[in-house]
Write a structure and sequence with these properties.
By secondary structure, the chain is an alpha/beta fold. The chain has two domains: about 300 residues, Zn peptidases (Aminopeptidase); about 200 residues, Glucose Oxidase, domain 1 (3-Layer(bba) Sandwich). Strand 14, helix 11 and strand 15 form a beta-alpha-beta unit. It starts with about 35 loop residues before the first helix and ends in a 5-residue tail after the last helix. Bound molecules: zinc ion. Zinc ion binds next to loops.
């Protein structure tokens, strides 16, 4: 699961695909009821073949200290990549990467602001305060994002606070309504209004906010700090994470994808510097926080000019996605692909971290890879094989902003139109015996019906998103596919436990505080329940199998926001 969501641009621009609906003249094919497909003896056998000990074994290898936290473009990651490729080969799957290999290499540029040469200063323009610039301190008060196109860039401009910085016409919401941001640096607060869970997540993503700022003529951006962001990704952790640079993938011309030259500086403030930013303004920081909590922060000019100077250190590296195909058995459907995905990378090693400094990433996301591998194995042994082809994709650079998946979704090794759905697995919190599932994205497409049928088969309940403020829908790789118009889901275990003595909500909260993106997310953490992981894997299997078997490919719900925004348009 990704936490750089406030800073990393994680998703691609939408590309409209040719629509399968353009073949609408055809008679709708008859569809077998999902329940009858899932009650087949071959399905029961495949579910029974999913082994908790295999999930544990894959996780044990991938989360071993020897792999050094599987950081993108490191030797540890490359070893993990060869492991996954070897597993695919052993299952008899077809290589689906570059040049008939299992690997698709992703070219990256890294960027890291040179702290000794990069600055942020504020000059008051109102009646209050001195007119001489106040220089803020790097790491203490602020940090800057590196620039992916320029070694050195600077901007001086008036600052306007634009609330969340969101324009959402379908929700009749516009933070820029009474604001002129042209030629200004926009300051904005993390989050989004109280929209539907997935929509809120979408508008919270930094890519949407940057694109909207550019649409309003902004030349720079300052992300203020607030209690919500502090709870999710504290400034201290953002400073800690400066040890690794930011990444972008490169197009064939060598340009960084989602680099926007219009924005000449991006700064993030801590809470103290945020208070200073609002000094002498129409609203104090506390008033802004309070208003944001209620879903409608004010927007207003700040009585100051900011200067952001960014000097960037940059490097070019590459790191592979790992891909394999199980060919479909139905000649009429085998050209279409269901894509399973899980991220293989994690955070690497940090000398300043506690203990051995190795971010083993057992749950994040050795668990997802292990579940995908076991799912692939049982699918590959089914007779007959599933009707559609199934592509298994282990991606790199998820923790750097969903980049490996975004690269694949933009540059697929199969016909883009052939991808009918994505099922992504990230962070199975196997800490209690699973009794329900929460499936991000299920409310937006016909995959909701698939999810319901799979859950019913396993006697699991389907629960709504218990934590919309975590904006999970945009924090893992399914969002890369959504942005390309592909109906996508990310199943998670819900907060119901078969063991009434366990309180999953409390356990999950504790885990987020103490082990999420910490060195303690390793195989020695207490409570790993591999039986529960196997049950969850059976659910993941059933979802993909049903999508592969049903005659009709998944569709966005009529009028759905993501369908309208990203799905293929009829010619
Ligand atoms: Zn993560």
């Amino acid at each position: 699961m990704n936490s750089k969501l406030t800073l990393m641009i994680s998703v691609g621009l939408s590309i409209f695909l040719l629509t399968p609906a353009s073949r609408g003249a055809e008679k709708p094919p008859t569809q077998k009821p999902a329940g009858s497909i899932l009650s087949r003896a071959s399905v029961s056998a495949a579910m029974a073949a999913i082994r908790p000990q295999a999930i544990r074994a894959h996780m044990g290898f991938l989360a071993d200290d020897l792999l050094a936290g599987r950081g993108t473009a490191t030797r540890g990651y490359d070893v993990a990549a060869r492991y996954v490729a070897a597993q695919f080969a052993a299952m008899g799957l077809k290589p689906a990467g570059d040049d008939h290999s299992f690997l698709q290499y992703v070219p990256f540029r890294t960027a890291h602001a040179d702290e000794s040469k990069s600055t942020l200063s504020l000059t008051a323009t109102g009646d209050k305060g001195s007119k001489s610039p106040i220089a803020l301190k790097y790491r203490e008060d602020f940090l800057l994002r590196g620039d992916f196109g320029r070694q050195s860039v600077a901007v001086t401009a008036p600052v306007v606070f634009v609330g969340y910085g969101i324009t959402a016409p379908s929700e009749h919401y516009d933070d820029y309504e009474h604001i002129d941001a042209k030629g200004k640096i926009v300051a904005l607060i993390f989050g989004a209004p109280k929209f539907d869970s997935a929509l809120k997540a979408h508008y919270t993503s930094s890519l949407q906010k940057i694109k909207n700022a550019i649409a309003h003529g902004a030349v720079g951006m300052i992300v203020v700090d607030d209690p919500v962001l502090e709870g999710l990704y504290p400034f201290s952790k953002r400073v800690r994470d400066l040890r690794t640079p930011d990444f972008r993938w490169l197009d064939p011309q060598g340009a960084a994808h989602n680099f926007f030259p219009q924005i000449k500086g991006v700064a993030q403030l801590n809470v103290d510097a945020t208070r200073r930013l609002f000094d002498g303004a129409a609203y104090s920081a506390e008033q802004v926080f309070e208003a944001a909590k209620s879903g409608r922060p004010p927007a207003f000019d700040l009585p100051l000019i900011a200067t952001i100077e960014t000097v960037t250190q940059s490097r070019e590296v590459r790191s592979p996605n790992i891909l394999a195909t199980l060919e479909g058995s139905d000649p009429g459907l085998a050209h279409e692909h269901v894509v399973y995905s899980a991220h293989l990378d994690h955070l690497g090693v940090s000398e300043s971290a506690a203990g051995d400094g190795i971010y083993n990433g057992a749950l994040d996301n050795a668990s997802g890879i292990a579940i995908m591998l076991e799912t692939a194995r049982v699918l590959s042994q089914m007779n007959p094989r599933p009707r559609r082809s199934i592509l298994f994709l282990a991606v790199t650079a998820e923790e750097d902003g969903l980049l490996g998946s975004d690269y694949f979704a933009n540059n697929p090794t199969v016909d883009k139109r052939s991808i009918v759905a994505n099922v992504n697995v990230d962070e199975d919190k196997m800490l209690w015996p699973v009794r329900d599932v929460v499936v991000y994205g299920a409310d937006h497409s016909s995959l909701g019906r698939v999810v319901q049928a799979a859950a019913t088969r396993l006697q699991l309940a389907v629960s709504p998103d218990p934590e919309p403020e975590q904006v999970i829908f945009v924090r893992s790789d399914q969002y890369s596919f959504v942005q390309q118009g592909v109906p996508s889901i990310m199943p998670n275990p819900g907060f119901k436990s078969l063991d009434p003595a366990i309180d999953p909500h409390a356990l999950s909260e504790k885990w987020e505080k103490t082990r999420y993106h910490e060195v303690g997310d390793d195989m020695s953490q207490p409570g790993l329940d591999f039986e529960s992981a196997a049950t969850f894997a059976r659910f993941v299997y059933l979802c993909g199998y049903l999508i592969a078997e049903e005659t009709q490919r998944p569709t966005w719900n009529p009028g759905d926001f993501f369908g309208i925004q990203y799905a293929p348009k009829s010619p």
